[in-house]
Amino acid sequence: MTYDLHIVKRFLTGYVLLILGLIVFFVVLHYVEYVDDFMDRGATMSSVFLLYYPNYVPDIIRLISPLAVFISAVFLTSRLAQKLELSSLQTAGVSLYRILVPFVIVGVVITGFMFWFNGWVVPQTNRTRMAFEQEFTKDARVGAEYANIHRQNAPGSILSVNYYERRSKSASVVSLQLFNQDGTMQERIDAERMTWIDSLETWRMTSATVRRFDESGEISRRSVSVIDTVLSIYPRDLSRLRGDVDAMTITEARSYLNTLRRTAASRTGQALVAYYSKFSYPFANLILILLAVPLASVRRRGGQAVQLGLGLFIAFVYLALMKLVEPFGYAETISPVMAAWIPHIVFMAFAVVLLVKVRK
Predict the structure, then answer these.
(1) Tens digit of pLDDT for each residue in 286-334?
(2) How many whole angstroms separate alpha carbon 203 and alpha carbon 189?
């Protein structure tokens, strides 16, 4: 029990120090890359360092936590192996599985914490971060969907928008089409502009033309200056950014995805992968511990430097596999849920093989 506490203390100390060091590294690297954008677009240093980066740090922690866990576990285990402490314990009848217990306990705690942190804390800070990036970085709108939008308002009702302005919540060149059950068009409303009215929670169409049809074709046509209409489509349904799901809690993201399905939105793969990653990514913390301990428990020529180098290579392959698989989920070539889980399943299997083969 005393030795377990000793391992837990050293492991957590290494983990926290690595998190702090990596945060500083990523912030400095990011600032060097974007300082020109900040200056050109009028961001003050106080807003950058007192607003933007404090809200960016939680997302950095989410991203680097598995790497910090892995390096800390490799460093501690390899140090115990080089000093023959592991060999002494194993000679005394303590198996590697028993030595792994405090590591696993810490891994489970970190995984649970990161699930909560990633699912509910990071989205809150990401909202502030992404709003800042929208205003002060040149590539913030990359990945946005603003033009040629088609949404299903209800069965037999389609809304088409030529262009949507996210900030003003207004759309230009709008067409609302209603169809009969046999697929023939019943009514069509074309408007030059459509604006969301917050107080009424309705859409206001201006300079509209209303056409009605029967089996023989158009039977009536009238021009209307203003039409207020209630749709099942809301402003958030008309524009999507690449990081929308990143700025939503798990419950908000689930509701958002249900809305996308209801409105028959296309290209939902990226949003789905991001949603399922909220569940899968925290498990990387535990999986990498199960990889690190058996990997570093074997003494190698070159000592800890070789162990750390090998560990970093494996962590790089893990990350590379995630980035390699994700685009297939975005395109829905494979199921988005599988794209989010495949890398973790593969490395979990690798960890099990290592645990079975390593000297107990």
Answers:
(1) 999 999 999 888 776 666 677 778 778 888 899 889 999 999 999 999 9
(2) 13
Given its phi and psi angles, is residue 183 left (phi above 0), alpha (psi -120 to 50 degrees) or beta? left
Token pair 């700025």 in the structure block, residue? 247
**Contact by Cβ (8 Å): 68, 19:** yes
Specify the pLDDT at position 359: 66
Do 15 and 102 touch, CB atoms closer than 8 A?
no
Residue 173 in tokens: 């060149």
With a CB cutoff of 8 Å and minimum separation 6, the contacts of 16 are none
Per-residue three-class SS string for the chain? CHHHHHHHHHHHHHHHHHHHHHHHHHHHHHHHHHHHHHHHCCCCHHHHHHHHHHHHHHHHHHHHHHHHHHHHHHHHHHHHHHCCHHHHHHHCCCCHHHHHHHHHHHHHHHHHHHHHHHHHHHHHHHHHHHHHHHHHCCCCCCCCECEEEEEEEECCEEEEEEEEECCCCEEEEEEEEEECCCCCEEEEEEEEEEEEECCCCEEEEEEEEEEEEECCEEEEEEEEEEEEECCCCCHHHHCECCCCHHHCCHHHHHHHHHHHHHCCCCCCHHHHHHHHHHHHCCHHHHHHHHHHHHHHCCCCCCCHHHHHHHHHHHHHHHHHHHHHHHHHHHCCCCCHHHHHHHHHHHHHHHHHHHHHHCCC
Whole-prediction pTM: 0.83
In tens, the pLDDT along 144-166 reads 556 788 888 888 899 999 888 88
- 192 vs 149: CA distance, rounded Å: 15
SS (HEC) of 301-340: CCCHHHHHHHHHHHHHHHHHHHHHHHHHHHCCCCCHHHHH
Alpha-carbon distances, residue 162 vs 140, 176, 239, 242, 275 (angstroms): 21, 12, 12, 20, 28
Residue of 76, 264, 61, 21 whose CA lies nearest to 159: 264
